Amino acid sequence: MFEDEYSPEYIDNLDGGFIEHNEGEEDTYDLDCFPKEQQQIAVAKTKFILNIRKKLKDKGWTKENVMPIVDALYDASLPFKSPSLSSVQRWHRSLSQNQDNPAVLVSKHHRKGNRNSKVGDDKYFDLALERFLKATRPTAMSAYRYYESQMLIDIENGKYEGRPISQTAFYKRLAKLSSYEVTAKRYGKYKADMKFGYKGGPLKLERPLQRVEIDHTPLDLILLDDETLHPLGRPYLTILKDSLSKCIIGYHLSFQAPSYASASKAICHAMLPKKIKGPDGKPSWECHGKIETLVADNGAEFWSESLEHFCLEAGINIQYNKVGQPWGKGLVERNFLTIQQLILDDLEGKTFSNNVERADYNSVKNAKFKFSRFVKAFETWVAEVFNWEPNQKKTHVPMLEWRKAVNKFPPNELTPPEHEHIKLISGILKKPALQNNGIIFEHLRYDSKELADYRKQFCRDKKIKVTTKVNIDDLGFAYVYLFEYERYLKVPCVDFQYASGLSYEKHKVHITYIRKYNKIHGKSGLDQARAKQHIAEILEDIDASAKESSSKQKKVGGMKKAARVKGVDSVSVQTRREKDSNPVKQPSSLADLEMIWQEDT
């Protein structure tokens, strides 16, 4: 349908480079590239020669014909000295050969002089330069002192005749070195490329969701548990941004470090319709649809086999940004800075990048915002503020650009059956062996009559590996792909009472607890149910103690782990909101956004 696909090499293939000059032409022919004073002198000389031509008419440029005219035309107010006959003839010849371009009469003082070193101190300068270009980044003064001391020692020993150049002259020689080479040696190639390297231009985009950037960042804010009001720590934010419209199209917020789970949930949120409504009761976050190309960095979570298979099944082309070139997805990188500055800058519980900035401020003690309240406020800010905020030049409004692009090239939307399918294929990918008692995933066994019938027909005496997807938020079922039937089979966990509604993160904690408990007490046979019950009691104790001592400062490390076990993330807030028979009232105006932040926790 579309033939004009663009690749990262698009800009590199453009015909650029130095402008070639015809033989005999001056190297520089643009008058505007010279200083103002030199421009005025060149223009005055040109007018002077043109007036001489008018007076001479068809006469020759001899001394008898030219000098009387020069004496008559020259005025002391002109910005050049009275020219000699040879100067006038030279100016006339240069203008004639270059179509009377005044730039050729600009004084070429920068070409004068001997450019080769007359000092003969290259040996000593090279030694000092080698010292100056070290990664330890010594100062120019240190390099000069080394240069001077080495030369003075050789002079005293009769190995060199001469004297060191001045410190100013030494600095000038350093200034003539390649800026890129100096930065690369002293700060590294990455820093040099960032400062001087070719960044290229934006690719030509014309469709919404044609190119979407994704990335993670920890938020500089301490959030509270909804029930205990205990500080949970800093959450991780994953966002996706459409490169054409510059709208934020999806996100995920949790206390789990960046992983495939957070990436897949953010992608699903971006592709599915949002239920955020504006003051008029209509959906205010309109961005959704199938993503064409997803641009990610080289983090481990983006190189997982699960993400690769998920993107393949969802029809998403995943593109990895080049290492050390963050400008390749600069939109989402700049977005994180915008979020930190515009949303979190004046909120209580804000953290700082270092101790100097934080001073005496206690982020944990001053934290005030519940996790669910922040999720609601963040979604409202994205839908009704950020996506409608014009750029500094007032030439681009993200949501208006989105609507314009959608009217021209509407993105493919997911059908209702695909809504469930996208959640299925976003699960964790495993390839366990199909055994005579089902499949095993993280110590959980899954089996059903349908799977047993499949084994009877196709497995015989051999074990085969089957592609299996497991929902990250609910281990109650595993989805086994049966190649012969070309579809997934929904297989329940044998211990369904334990696994139903259990998150993958919480299950891993249970397993870890069992291993440690058995190691300490030397007992075996403890199952996940006992671990689950015991951990629930521990969490209840933590919650109870937190309520009793909410005014006392606590370390957030343990509570952050508890938040991960309890599954505190933006998806759980959205799910709870949908199940609530009395949903939280949406703000009636943008002014109500401030009330959300200040609402009593």
From TrEMBL:
One Gene Ontology term from the biological process aspect of the record: DNA integration
InterPro entries assigned: Integrase_cat-core, RNaseH-like_sf, RNaseH_sf
Residue ranges with Basic residues bias: 552-564
PROSITE patterns: INTEGRASE
Gene3D superfamilies, A to Z: Ribonuclease H-like superfamily/Ribonuclease H (3.30.420.10)
Annotated region (Disordered), positions in chain: 548-601
Recorded GO MF terms: nucleic acid binding
Domain Integrase catalytic span(s) in chain numbering: 204-406
Name listed for the protein in its UniProt record: Integrase catalytic domain-containing protein
Organism: Oceanospirillum linum
